[in-house]
Amino acid sequence: NAGVTQTPKFQVLKTGQSMTLQCAQDMNHEYMSWYRQDPGMGLRLIHYSVGAGITDQGEVPNGYNVSRSTTEDFPLRLLSAAPSQTSVYFCASISTWDRGTFGYGYTFGSGTRLTVV
Amino acid sequence: AQKVTQAQTEISVVEKEDVTLDCVYETRDTTYYLFWYKQPPSGELVFLIRRNSFDEQNEISGRYSWNFQKSTSSFNFTITASQVVDSAVYFCALSEARETSGSRLTFGEGTQLTVNP
Fold first, then answer.
1. Are B47 and A106 inside 8 Å of each other by CB?
2. Which residues sit opposite A7 in a β-bridge?
3. What residues form DSSP beta bridges with A9?
4. CB within 8 A of B66, min separation 6: which ones?
5. pLDDT digits (tens, 9 = 90+) for A27-53
6. A-chain residues within 8 Å CB-CB of B77?
7. In whole angstroms, what is the distance from residue B23 CA to residue B64 CA?
8. Nearest CB to B109: which of A42, A100, A103?
9. Could you tell me if A60 lies within 8 Å of chain B, comparing CB atoms?
10. What SS3 state is found at A97?
């Protein structure tokens, strides 16, 4: 049981390049989401998905695309990288069935540190 | 719109001191979830606790305790007898409890806790 796996861990891009950040989970979680972490701003939601074939925008979606063709995978695409997208990116997932009072929380991947030059 | 405020940007204590991290939240929902996460220097996000809004029972787990007060919209976190290994950034977060938006976590800015030997 690997949890949430993000690749790559580090990436340097040139302005204007495109790339895909990969996220995969093996817990059969319905909900998956992408966050970016910037100094002093906590984590901010980019896009999220409530199941295969369903995605929606979060707080900071501009410049990013997502798709969810399977339950396991939720890739994040940068179409034309900009220096403002330099950040640490986290993918997270959670199951819908856990409604208990002290249930577990979202499982996060280990993050991707992206630098756009 | 939801908002989470962690007014303490940085806290520095000496080992064995007790320390409380404050978290104040805003939401229009009557049912919601509150979370605390720990981010050690290695960068991963470690789930600490989840609390449902309809249960105001306080929680203690070893040296950690949480005080949830719905009347003041606060969910404070206390570490008793702090240790150097507690040094990390701590995030408070809030999510809706609706089926279609379970992926949307709103984070506070984080509190950097440094425990000195």
1. yes
2. A22
3. none
4. B36, B49, B51, B58, B59, B60, B75, B76, B77, B78
5. 888 889 999 999 878 899 999 998 899
6. none
7. 15
8. A42
9. no
10. coil
